[in-house]
Amino acid sequence: MPRPAKGARLGGSAAHEKLLLANLAKSLFEHGRITTTEAKARRLRPVAERLITKAKKGDIHNRRLVLQTITDKGIVHTLFTEIAPRYEERPGGYTRITKIGNRRGDNAPMAVIELVEGEIAKKATVAEAEAATVRAVKESEAKAEDAAPADEAKDA
After folding, report:
1. DSSP single-letter state for residue 103
2. Pick from 34, 36, 72, 78: nearest CA to 55
3. Alpha carbons 50 and 48: distance in angstroms, whole number
4. Where would I find the H helices in the chain?
5. pLDDT of residue 133
6. Side-by-side strand order, sheet with 109-115
7. d(CA 59, CA 150)
8. pTM of the prediction?
9. How many Cα atoms are found within 13 Å in the side-chain-facing hemisphere of 1?
10. Disulfide-capable partner of 38 in 34, 78, 100, 109 (CB 3.0 to 4.6 Å)?
11. Closest to 48 (Cα-Cα) out of 85, 96, 95
12. Using an 8 Å Cβ cutoff, are 111 and 36 in contact?
């Protein structure tokens, strides 16, 4: 008879851990980042990355596999149409875990797990750099035009 993995499980039973991780993944895809305990974040990371990899493939079979874990069709649609295309060029490492210290009350170590901003952040940075370059060129042209009439006035 098959047995679940040995060791401590989040929430007690294997079934409860599975549901807990599904709910955490759902919240992660809905909000982009969540604050949770370090243990839950470490257990969530491979689940979330596996779901994003399936979403990148984009076919109906993988959509049904993702729907087995995340039962909210709206979030699955967001995952397939918005989140997965963002990581088309990235072979893995879609999430980042950042430790934020201990929780007041029970002193549990906390962490933020978030989706790494892939192409969107890169495009925004490139667009910002291009805009700055255009602005600098216009300013230098304006300074050159302002300097030219002043030189003509000196000659006259």
Report:
1. P
2. 78
3. 5
4. 14-31, 38-57, 60-69, 73-78, 84-86, 119-155
5. 80
6. 33-37, 109-115, 95-102
7. 67
8. 0.71
9. 0
10. 109
11. 95
12. yes
What is the distance between the alpha carbons of residues 48 and 26, in angstroms, rounded to a whole number?
A: 9
Taking the alpha carbons at both ends of the chain, their separation in whole angstroms is 101
pLDDT along the chain (156 residues), means of 10: 70 88 96 95 95 95 97 96 93 94 94 82 65 81 75 59
CA distance 67 to 61: 10
Please name the residue that has the structure tokens 């040995």: 6
- The angle at the Cα of 10, spanning 38 to 4, to the nearest 5 degrees, equals 130
d(CA 60, CA 110): 36
Rg (CA), the chain: 25
24 Cα distance to chain centroid: 14
Retrieve residue 75's tokens.
């979030």
**Of the candidates 99, 79, 93, the residue with the CA atom closest to the CA atom of residue 36:** 99
